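Long-time lurker. I teach an intro course on protein structure, and each term I like to show students one example going from raw sequence to a predicted 3D structure in token notation. This year I'd like something fresh instead of my usual example. Would anyone be willing to generate the tokens for the chain below so I can use it in lecture? Attribution to the forum is fine with me.
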Amino acid sequence: MGLEKEMCLIKEHMEGGAIVHYKGLYYAIGSSLTGWRANPNKYATAPSLEGPWSDFKDIAPPEKNTYGAQSTMLVKVVGKKATTVIFMGDIWKPGTQWESAYLWMPVEIGDGKLWVPEPTPWSLDIKTGENKLGGIQ
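-- Reply from a regular --
Happy to contribute to a lecture. Here you go:
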């Protein structure tokens, strides 16, 4: 047993990290180290896990603090017609932990961009991979 290669994927000090591979690029998301307080989550892209990684950019309007959520996972649903990537985030409520919730939203992703839209009801057809914002398909 030995170490073949040592590398640092992302040099930023972040938590709540998640990575997804989509159309030839890796997208990594994370949040700042602010404890229980929400903050603007960010993303960076790279053609390989070794990089080079782009600068980090906001995944939602910064003043919205990622709608109160901290990134926890990105799930890719590949269907017969489309691929949907879902942002999954924890919404922490430190004073009332039992009321903490989750935010799951399909992201707008592609060409080096990743964006989490304003939370709204949405649906997903897991067979086709298509999602629809604003209600049930």
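Some talking points for your students: The first strand starts at residue 15 and ends at 22. The mean pLDDT is 91.
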